[in-house]
Please model this.
Amino acid sequence: MSMKSLLVSLAAATAFAATCSHAADAWPTRPVRILFGFPAASATDVIARVVGQKLSDKWGQPVVIDNRPGAGGNLGSEMAARAPADGYTIFFGTVANAISTSLYSKLNYDYLKDFTPITLVATTPLVLVANPSLPVNNVKDLVAYAKAHPGKLNFGSGGVGTSNHLAGEMFKASTGTDLVHVAYKGTPAAYSDLFSGQVSLMWDNIVAVTPHVIAGRLKPLAVTSTHRAASLPNVPTMEESGLPGFEAVSWIGALVPAGTPKAVVDKIYTDLVAVLRMPDVKEKLGVLGAEVVGNTPEQFAAWNRNEITKWSKAVKDSGAHID
Model:
């Protein structure tokens, strides 16, 4: 290449970089949507609305919450994967994406390849809760009771392959207990039977469980995080309860379609993490039982890979499979 050609190429590259930088500085110039595969009032929805309002204030543009429930969260995931790679669609992925990778024989998107990770927004532990009439007050009691009555205790979930189903399967494998899984079409029906005593146990997101615990409708036995939850400080962890290494948390992370310009990715990351560090955001999410994270894209990418590995083992052990 001649010196003249080299200079022209360098000039073009510099101009392109400047254009990209200017575009990122100007972004966003229109509404941004946060899309995910779960309904209004879900934990993902509640957290997205808190974060979205703060981003809207920072960007001077509306941040629209786009609920697309269906197929275990995969409908919204597929829509997000096919969205234009311009930053105007931010996808809130969850633990369901890590589970779906091995639970479904075929997906119309690839969670690792079709998205660029931004940051892990928050984690929310599951809580093992029991009907108040069950004669156990902790995990040790539960294990002893279950072994004395094999196949007599059951646990409900929002469906086959959900995190609250697989947490129960992890528990069975860890303790050698024989619990019967009862799958419902969503957790509301499961709660109804749990309150009445037709179902003995359930693992569910702390955001959904806490109001029922406070009201005395359910008895908490343990949380599934590695440390106690600030919103339920008197409830021990599974590890404290004699199950070392037991961790099964729900989580929400921000991603964008693969191919989104790096300058835009960097801006979303910087602004989103700034929002997550706001004291009032931490307080609002903390009251719900969520723990704000805000790590780097590289750390979130590693988290995704580890979660897929962990939950694929749970799926395999449970025998769950969806065609």
